[in-house]
């Protein structure tokens, strides 16, 4: 059985699979993000001449799911935090924490 220390020492970045992420911005511009030399590398994608690509699709549906981490600790979205019916259903919610930007 390997120890965690041995696993960490044996780790090599060369064994990781190369990844790229295709991103569509709010304006519909398409870019490809990859990691190179510990920095993010952005390449603008050239669209085929036919166009027809979809732009950003905004999700207007409410996310009211709340996860129970511990009986005294709940995790949910800002939609759930602003929905009074959800808060009443959960009962005993005393504080809401908000991530600062």
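^ Assign residues to that structure.
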């Amino acid at each position: 059985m390997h120890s965690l220390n041995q696993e960490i020492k044996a780790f090599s970045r060369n064994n990781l699979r190369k990844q790229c992420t295709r991103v569509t911005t709010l304006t519909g511009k398409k870019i490809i993000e990859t990691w190179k030399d510990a920095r993010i590398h952005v390449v603008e994608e050239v669209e085929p001449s036919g166009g027809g690509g979809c732009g950003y699709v905004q999700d207007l549906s409410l996310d009211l799911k709340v996860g129970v981490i511990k009986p005294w600790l709940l995790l949910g979205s800002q939609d759930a935090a602003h929905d009074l019916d959800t808060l009443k259903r959960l009962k005993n919610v005393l504080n809401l924490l908000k991530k600062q930007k």
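The CA atoms of residues 55 and 96 lie 34 Å apart.
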